[in-house]
Design a protein that fits this description.
Layout: E1 6-8, E2 11-13, H1 16-24, H2 29-39, E3 42-43, H3 44-50, H4 56-68, E4 72-77, E5 83-88, H5 90-93, H6 96-123, H7 130-134
Antiparallel strand pairs: 1-2, 3-5, 4-5
């Protein structure tokens, strides 16, 4: 199936899956959306605390991109010190079932590979090598 090249808001893509990945893709955007969807409205510092491995610069960048794509709402309160809160828009809330499915798939993947690691540990009497852990197994076909 061939998809024609399309343009939308400066994005170039051939199919809507590619567009969705451009909007939602990356290491942090799905996690930001997930926390806002599960925890509700959060301040910048709360998001940073929930995701300690993200840098302040990256969090700011990702929030701006999500805001520009109308996935989140940035509410600024005129007070000292400044208060800024982030929440999901209706469009942002619409992606939560997708993230729930992705999480369920991740859990399944984890369970399958945990079983594989347990087998390797049993075979090695409690020792394992990195090469054995990273080898694809027959269990992976169950995904």
């Amino acid at each position: 199936m061939s998809c024609p090249k399309r343009n939308l808001g400066g994005r170039h893509y051939f199919c809507t899956v590619e567009l969705a990945i451009q909007v939602l893709g990356g290491k942090w955007k799905p996690i930001i959306l997930w926390h806002l969807g599960c925890d509700g409205t959060l301040r910048f510092s709360e998001l940073k605390r929930i995701m300690p491995n993200i840098t302040q610069k990256m969090l700011t960048q990702q929030l701006r991109e999500l805001e520009n794509d109308n996935m989140i709402l940035r509410q600024v309160y005129p007070q000292v010190p400044p208060k800024v809160e982030y929440s999901l828009t209706e469009l942002g809330r619409s992606v939560m079932p997708v993230l729930e499915s992705l999480g369920a798939w991740g859990k399944r993947f984890e369970e399958i590979h945990k079983q594989d690691m347990d087998v390797v540990q049993d075979e090695q009497n409690g020792t394992q090598s990195r090469d054995q852990i990273n080898q694809p197994s027959a269990h992976a076909s169950r995904l």
